[in-house]
Every structure is written in C-alpha cells, then in structure tokens.
C-alpha cells in the first residue's frame, strides 16, 4: 500500500490509475485517507462524477434499448405505470462486474 502511494505521488500521469487501484482494493481507513490527502480524494470524486455525467449524457444515444430489453416488465393500470427493468439491471450488473474486475486485476 505504501509503495502504491509513493508511486502515485511520484508522477501526475500515473496517479489516477494508481488512485483507482487504491480506491477499489484498499478498505477505507481514515488514517490512509489522511495520508493520501483530501485533495486527491476530492479529485477522484470529481473524476467519478464527471464519468457518471458523461454516461448519463451518452447512454440515450447508444443503440442499446435500456428499459426495453426482454425481461423488463411494465405494468400499466388505469392511471399508473410501473416499470421493473430486470433485464436492463442484469445487463448493467454484468457490465459493471466485468469492468471492475478488469480494473482490480491490473
């Protein structure tokens, strides 16, 4: 862990990947967070929020019909509609599992 933090402080180009590795592999210990510095955690949080915002803006343009996949249930009443996106949830879960596995493996 100390080696990862030392290498993260050594160069700005390698820092984001190493911070992601620390974020996904190390438990959140207040002493380690203080050692990394609040600024780096805020930068990491900002990068995550930017990524989520980019996904939200890009997802409607993709040819993947999230919410309309087989397994997505829609119950319609007289004055109400209830969506239960089981197929979309399984697909997103699978994609995130593979993505996080690849990040943690490096």
Concise structural overview:
This protein has 106 residues and is mainly α. 64% of the residues lie in helices and 9% in strands. The protein is built from five helices and two strands; from the N terminus they run ααααββα.
- What string, H for helix and E for strand, traces the elements in order? HHHHEEH
Provide the residue-averaged pLDDT. Answer: 77
Mind describing the biggest β-sheet? Answer: 2 strands, antiparallel
Number of strands: 2
The separation of the N and C termini measures 15 Å
What ranges have pLDDT less than 50 throughout 5 or more consecutive residues?
none
The fraction of residues in strands falls at 5-15%
Shape: elongated
Count of folded domains: 2
As laid out across the biggest beta sheet, the strand order is: 1-2
Helix count equals 5
What is the percent of helical residues?
Answer: 55-70%
**What is the rounded Rg?**
19 Å
What structural class is derived from the secondary structure elements? mainly alpha
């Amino acid at each position: 862990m100390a080696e990862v933090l030392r290498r993260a402080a050594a160069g700005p180009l390698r820092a984001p990947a190493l911070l992601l590795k620390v974020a996904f592999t190390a438990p959140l210990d207040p002493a380690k967070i203080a050692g990394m510095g609040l600024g780096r955690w805020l930068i990491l949080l900002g990068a995550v929020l930017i990524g989520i915002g980019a996904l939200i803006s890009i997802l409607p343009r993709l040819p993947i019909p999230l919410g309309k996949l087989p397994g997505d249930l829609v119950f319609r009443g007289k004055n109400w509609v209830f969506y239960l996106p089981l197929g979309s949830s399984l697909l997103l879960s699978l994609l995130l599992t593979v993505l996080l596995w690849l990040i943690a493996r490096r």
